[in-house]
Amino acid sequence: MFGLYAREARSISRMAHLRFFPQAVVGGSGAYLTGDDGRQLLDFAASWGAASLGHSHPAIREAVNRALSDQAGASYLSTANEPCVLLAEKLLSLVPERARGRVWFGHSGSDANETVARMVVAATGRSRILAFEGAYHGGTVGSMAISGHPAQQGAVKVPGLTLVPYPDSYASGSSEAAKEIVLARIEELFATEVPPEEVAAFFIEPIQSDGGMLVPPDGFFKAIETLCRRHGILLVSDEVKVGLGRTGMMHAYEHSGIEPDIIVFGKGLGGGLPISAVVGPEAIMNHAVAFSLQTVHGNPVCAAAALAVLETIESENLVENAARIGTVLRDGLEQLARRHSIIGNVRGRGLALGAELVVDRESRMPASRGSALAVYRAFELGLVLYYVGVRSNVLEFTPPLTLSEAEARKGVDILEKVLADVIAGRVNADVLAGFQGW
Ligand code: PMP
Fold first, then answer.
1. What is the pLDDT of residue 123?
2. Domain closes at, from 315, 332, 354
3. 368 alpha carbon to ligand 1 midpoint, in Å?
4. Does the keyword Transferase apply (predicted)?
5. How far is the CA of 286 from the CAs of 120, 127, 289, in angstroms?
6. Pocket perturbation via mutation, ligand 1, pick of 15, 18, 137, 204 by most ligand atoms within 8 A of CB
């Protein structure tokens, strides 16, 4: 245990503690973080820390410094400041016509989703919300209330929430069958306990990321969109984790050929600074005004950082880079899967990738302990990884969008050693003390 980490443990709540990463970070550059022992750690969990442009990107540093001196970093009276207006105009230019109304700014993915949930119910007069089992929409009471991740069992749920199973193509063995079962379940719900005319919104994650980097089967979200349109249900795409270029398209929903009514951005939007945004039709978004004024939303420094992020994604062609380097990384992971049967399945899009670890490929039993050990061993060998999944057995790969081909290959090389050590039992299993998955 290094000095700063020990002091963190003595002074800061364990609640927000990242497990299997027992070190404090003192800086970073590009795809690397610097530990307080001077070690360079290749960051393949950048979506976690929102480092979409990598660490210390000059465009963000300059934008933040400029906003600090121009605006004194003040908490202005809400969003009537130049960086916010420019950012709102930029976001509106990025979304499809049906969502191009107004923008609301928050601080995190959680408060953004929570606001959407309140807004759609208030604006439509409908009291029900649909979301997916396994979905993670946030960690505040309101956003947990519309989430279906097992880590949030016991959380308060909104009375009108109905969770629908999410099609897991790998677990069920067939994406087509998984899709049909879920669509049939929704139709059944509509015909029985969930009258569709009472449903205000359907929340989707275009890739269910914390649930296990689950890519929807072909045509699945198109079918959901059709159902929503038929019944006047608002389709909400939570792009917080996989949006803004990460999947190799600007918006992750674009892969499904759908046009959501409401789009939620967070994490990478601020490049590490706390800002989230909701974009949607004017009639819905203006309904929120009465009850959604927060003290420092619309902070000009955060908005300036977000604007720099969006501009840099364009000027450095990071959407294309995510697609291109994503292919390199995915190929590398698939090669590893050929050599190590602990990898049951590799999936994802662009630089939002996952590898499901299994005890054996026949039973597909989750290797949850193996995943935790892999995360810890990766930390020891200089690679920042995390695991996701409703069974805590999917290694997540979400490096910065700026990742180079050499960095992608280096990450795969480290991972190969990590897996070999996990399989050979060379990782200190004491780190698993008390581990029961999420
Ligand atoms: N939505 C999605 C899809 C997420 O992955 C997350 C965080 N993992 C959130 C919302 C919550 O965002 P935040 O942690 O910024 O509150």
1. 94
2. 315
3. 22
4. yes
5. 11, 18, 6
6. 137
Low-confidence ranges of the chain (pLDDT < 50): 1
H or E, element range at 383: strand 383-384
Contact 369, 382 (CB under 8 A): no
204 shares a domain with 146 = yes
pLDDT given at position 115: 93
User: How high is the pLDDT of residue 18?
Assistant: 80
Report the CATH number that the domain containing residue 408 is assigned in CATH: 3.90.1150.10
Helices (H), 220-362: 220-231, 282-285, 300-315, 318-339
**Domain CATH for 78:** 3.40.640.10
Domain with 373 in it: 3-56+317-432
Residues with catalytic function? 136
Is 169 close to ligand 1, i.e. is its CB under 6 Å away? no
pLDDT at 85: 95
- Say yes or no: ipTM exceeds 0.85: yes
Query: Is 240 in the same domain as 310?
Result: yes
From ligand 1's centre to the CA of 90, what distance in Å?
22
